[in-house]
Write a structure and sequence with these properties.
The chain has 430 residues and is α/β, with parallel strands linked by helices. The chain has 19 helices and 13 strands.
């Protein structure tokens, strides 16, 4: 057993043999800047995110940087979902590592897709509490894996970072376009809007962004979708009604941004409300979907209103729904949600006359209202969007209000409320 594990570890850690030093062929991610200070701390670093968003590549980038500072044998990387390691515990892996290279100082242990290693959180806790000089970095494709299980075992001993698919700035970087400052952004506006079109159509999964052939992009996205549903939802949560899950996921993906209740969805797919609510929670747990709740100071009122579903990646959504051109406004709204979600809690606002797409919270108070509209050229559309935003700003006592458009910019005012109109490409780069 020990020899088999040792061979597996040598396979996973080619730098032990003097190769891949540094690791070649990886694109830089902006997450490295955010993670830097967290990596220097003693706590376990947990990186979450939807499958294929780049967690493994991010670990290898971190390893590449660490290789410049420490001995190669002080770094252990394990892809825990490797079939050859099925049933192998973290204790088994660490024993094999110690046998190959006895510890002589601080070590760095990177555990990729750690949920595949049985009882991993107990062993991480044991090593951590024993004062072993080991920096653990773990990744997982389910939020509950690294929130409930890790936090239960490692209360006060872990830090969590959420990695997402590429945003517009990162996609531009992958295309060799660097935007520093407003003047340069306007000078490169054509290239930026082309990248935005690509982001809306094909999304931001790194591997998809690096492929030029549209047929291959579509194949990859469909494969990602099927794998997320099969492994991170159905298999993890032991779902028996696979057809119902597929129907629900397809319904939600096709109707991003449209309010939906678990009761109405249940009637459509032929299952009860409780089952639909459970499936929706599982889809969100796998980072595939995000459900935005209605804004209300009353929790009861929030829960009584429909939620608005959004997808983690617009390319993934398009690959499933086969729609793009007629849904540009909804796709813009989805991109806006993804940006705002990274800044704080997000809700939607609604009264008897209209709706505001997003209310962004900071701490316990609302700080920004955002409306998304592809085209404001029609008078009734402009009046509807501006009017709803002004009413929300007045009710919530907000000083900031934004309407994100495709290409219009400027300011407008209604009932003493000043509203900024911003092109999506510029707003996403802010």
């Amino acid at each position: 057993m020990m020899n088999v594990l040792r061979e597996a570890l040598y396979y996973h850690n080619p730098w032990w043999r003097g190769s891949e030093r540094p690791i070649e062929g990886l694109r830089e991610r902006s997450a490295l800047t955010d993670i830097g200070p967290l990596f220097e701390r003693k706590e376990v670093l947990a990186i979450t995110g939807v499958r294929r968003c780049g967690k493994s590549s991010l670990l290898r980038l971190m390893i590449s940087r660490a290789l410049a500072k420490v001995d190669a044998t002080d770094i252990l990387y394990v892809a825990c979902d490797d079939p050859s390691l099925t049933g192998v515990t973290l204790k088994d892996l660490m024993d094999a590592y110690d046998a190959a290279y006895p510890p002589k100082g601080r070590r760095f242990v990177f555990l990729d897709e750690v949920q595949a290693s049985p009882g991993w959180e107990r062993w991480v806790k044991r090593y951590h509490d024993a004062g072993e000089p080991i920096k653990f970095v773990v990744t997982g494709s389910n939020s509950s894996i690294l929130s409930s299980e890790l936090s239960t075992a490692l209360t006060g001993r872990q830090l969590t970072y959420r990695l997402r698919p590429l945003d517009l700035r990162e996609l531009l970087s992958f295309r060799g376009v660097k935007v520093d400052g407003e003047a340069e952004a306007y000078a490169q506006r054509a290239r930026i809007t082309n990248a935005l079109e690509e982001l809306m159509r094909h999304g931001g999964f790194p591997e998809v962004a690096l492929v030029d052939d549209e047929a291959i992009k579509l194949h990859l996205l469909k494969d990602y979708y099927g794998t997320i549903l099969a492994k991170d939802v159905a298999q993890r949560h032991d779902i028996r009604h696979g057809d119902a899950l597929l129907k629900l996921a397809h319904l939600l993906m096709t109707n991003i941004g449209r309010p939906a209740s678990a009761t109405s969805l249940g009637k459509t797919i032929g299952h009860n409300t409780r089952t639909v609510q459970a499936y929706m929670a599982h889809l969100e747990d796998a980072f595939l979907m995000k459900f935005v709740f209605h804004f209300s100071y009353s929790l009861k009122a929030q829960l009584e209103h429909p939620v608005k579903p959004y997808c983690v990646d617009t390319g993934l959504r398009n690959a499933v729904s086969f729609r793009f051109s007629e849904d540009r406004g909804w796709l813009m709204e989805n991109l806006a949600m993804l940006k705002l979600e990274g800044e704080g809690p997000v809700y939607y606002w609604k009264d008897a006359k209209g709706e505001v797409d997003f209310i962004l919270y900071e701490g316990i108070r609302p700080v920004l209202a955002v409306q998304v509209c592809h085209d404001l050229s029609e008078r009734k559309v402009r009046d509807r969007e501006v009017g709803a935003l002004a009413r929300a700003m007045r009710e919530l006592r907000l000083k900031r209000g934004t309407i994100v458009t495709w290409d219009e910019e400027g300011t407008t005012e209604l009932d003493g409320k000043r509203i900024e109109l911003v092109p999506m490409w510029r707003w996403l780069l802010e």
